[in-house]
Amino acid sequence: MDPPNSSMARLDLDVDLGFALFFFFVLCLFLLVTIVRCAQMVLDPYSAISVTMYQEEQTEE
């Protein structure tokens, strides 16, 4: 019987690690975008409201 090919076992591990790192970096990117968006809303909350909605709200009163 042939001994197990260590290069194939290492290749499988690297593919799994690659997928894990890819999704980790995508998750970190999403987190960074979310943090920036939340910081923008905290600094200037009225810019998040569209002008037409604000004008409609003012005319109803």
UniProtKB/TrEMBL annotation:
**Could you tell me the superkingdom of the organism this chain comes from?**
Eukaryota
**UniProt main location, coarse:** membrane
Q: Which compartments is it annotated to reside in?
A: Membrane
Among the Pfam families in the record, one is: Cortexin
Membrane topology, as annotated, equals: Single-pass membrane protein
What is the designated name of this protein?
A: Cortexin-2
Q: Which keywords label this protein? A: Membrane, Transmembrane, Transmembrane helix
InterPro entries under this entry?
Answer: Cortexin
Question: Which regions span the lipid bilayer?
Answer: 20-39
- What Gene Ontology terms describe where this protein resides (cellular component)? membrane
